[in-house]
Amino acid sequence: MANIHDLRRDYNLGELKQEDLDENPINQFNAWLQTVIDSGVSDPTAMTIATVSPDGQPSQRIVLLKDVDDRGFVFYTNLGSRKATELRENNKISLHFPWHFMERQVKVCGQAQPLPATEVARYFFSRPKESQLAAWASKQSQPISTRQMLLSKFDEVKQKFSSGQIPVPKFWGGFRVIPHEIEFWQGGEHRLHNRFVYTLNKTEQDSPRWQIQRLMP
C-alpha cells in the first residue's frame, strides 16, 4: 500500500471571489451544478446526506438530488430506511456535494420536511418501471441473507403488477431539505482554499435574507 500521508496535490483550477457570488445561494448552487452536469461526469447530482440517531451516532449515505429551488433540496427514499427513521426523530440534516474533480464542494445544513403525497406520486410515476418495482421489492436498510432472496422478491412484485399502473407504496416518500446554511468551497493554491458561507438571517421574519461570510480555509 502506498504511503497515503505522502499523497498530495495543488489546487489551482479556479478562484472564488465574493464579488462573483450570486446573492441567492440557490442560484449560485444551480450555476455550479449546471457546470458539473455539462462536464459529463457520472452522477452529477450525487450527494452525501448525514443524519443522527437518537443516541447521537451520525450516519452518512449517498443519494441523488431530484429537485432544487428556493424551497429547498429534494430527495426520495423508503420511509422505513434508517435515514427516514432518524429524520422522524430529528429532522436536522446535512448534505454534501463532493465535486472533487472541479476542486469544489458544497455543504448544506437544514431541516428535512416530508413531501406531500401529490409530489411523491408525481415523481414515482415518472420513474422507470423497474425502479418502481424495486421500491416495492426492497425493505430498505433491513437485513437479508442472500441477494437471491431480493431478486426473488423483485420477480414476485413484477408478477403481481404485471398489468396496469404500479401504485405508490405507502412506505415510500421523499423529503425537502430547507436550508439555513449553505457553504461553497473552491480549492486554492498552498491550501489557501476559498470558503464562503451563506447564513439565513432568521431575525427578519417578514423577509429573511442570506448573509455571506468568507471563512478561513
Automatic annotation (TrEMBL):
Homodimer. It catalyses: pyridoxamine 5'-phosphate + O2 + H2O = pyridoxal 5'-phosphate + H2O2 + NH4(+); pyridoxine 5'-phosphate + O2 = pyridoxal 5'-phosphate + H2O2. NCBIfam families: pdxH (TIGR00558), PRK05679.1 (NF004231). This is Pyridoxine/pyridoxamine 5'-phosphate oxidase. It comes from Aliiglaciecola lipolytica E3. Binds 1 FMN per subunit. It holds the Pfam family PNPOx_N. It comes from the Bacteria. Residues 172-217 form the Pyridoxine 5'-phosphate oxidase dimerisation C-terminal domain. Pathway: Cofactor metabolism; pyridoxal 5'-phosphate salvage; pyridoxal 5'-phosphate from pyridoxine 5'-phosphate: step 1/1; Cofactor metabolism; pyridoxal 5'-phosphate salvage; pyridoxal 5'-phosphate from pyridoxamine 5'-phosphate: step 1/1. Gene3D superfamilies: Electron Transport, Fmn-binding Protein, Chain A. GO terms for molecular function: FMN binding; pyridoxamine phosphate oxidase activity. Belongs to the pyridoxamine 5'-phosphate oxidase family. Catalyzes the oxidation of either pyridoxine 5'-phosphate (PNP) or pyridoxamine 5'-phosphate (PMP) into pyridoxal 5'-phosphate (PLP). FMN binds at residues 61-66, 76-77, 82-83, 105, 140-141, 185, 195. Residues 38-160 form the Pyridoxamine 5'-phosphate oxidase N-terminal domain. The keyword Oxidoreductase applies. Keywords: Flavoprotein, FMN, Oxidoreductase, Pyridoxine biosynthesis. Substrate binds at residues 8-11, 66, 123, 127, 131, 191-193. It is an enzyme of class 1 (oxidoreductase). Its EC number is 1.4.3.5.
